[in-house]
Amino acid sequence: MVGLRERKKAATRQGISDAATRLFEARGFEAVTLAEIAGAADVAQKTIWNYFGSKEELFFDAEPAVLDALVAAVRDGAPLRPLLDRPVVAGPCGWTDLDGGLYEGIRTFLACEQASPTLRARRTTLTWEWAAPLGAASGSTTWGAFAAATILLRHETMRAAMLDPITPATVRRRVQRVLDEAFAALPLTVQR
Predict the structure, then answer these.
(1) In sequence order, what are the residues at sequence separation of 6 or more whose Cβ sits closer than 8 angstroms to the Cβ of residue 85?
(2) 149 and 100, same structural domain?
């Protein structure tokens, strides 16, 4: 059972993350200061540092959970393709959910990422860092590198598609085409 202190810490962390995300999406990543985030979250700047090591970590705060879900699934023998063939990698929703608010929310987040050279560089670094844990979970360093490269390619395809004025069905087709090509390029033994 989670105690009161842990719940308060989780709520503070989430409040900081939510405030930062709203500011980043409204004004752009580089334009937002930690002081502004602290003010919007109603916390001291020092409190932000207690929860996040950098502004980039604030933006990508959901990524550790995505990696954890991928590693757990791979360790349990799940194939990678179904985890990538959805609007959010390893997320709970499917392509049929990609409309209205979810579509606009993802689009806004990806537009913010696209507008920032810092965030685009961090996305690449972050995703490549996943190669080692995915390789360890699968038992193959090569497979981990393939998985990281495929995830990055899938993300870049999704970002580009979402920023085009196209339908969710077209976004899905573009992502699936890239996944088809990536998985066709390797022997089944590596695909898991």
Answers:
(1) 95, 175, 176, 179
(2) yes
Nearest C-alpha neighbor of 129 from the set 192, 78, 67: 67
pLDDT of residue 100: 79
Position 99 scores a pLDDT of 83
Range list of H helices, 28-166? 34-41, 45-51, 55-59, 63-75, 80-84, 100-115, 117-129, 131-138, 141-163
Count up the domains in the chain and report the number.
2
> Are 120 and 172 part of one and the same domain?
yes
Please check whether residues 133 and 47 belong to one and the same domain.
no
Identify the sign of the CA torsion 93, 126, 28, 55: positive
Residue 172 confidence (pLDDT): 94
**What domain range is 143 assigned to?**
62-191
Neighbours of 94 (CB within 10 A): 11
pTM confidence score: 0.89
Is there a single domain that holds both residue 87 and residue 19? no
CA dist 7 and 4 (Å) reads 5
Question: What tens digit of pLDDT does each residue of 115-169 get?
Answer: 999 999 999 999 999 999 999 999 999 989 999 999 999 999 999 999 998 899 9
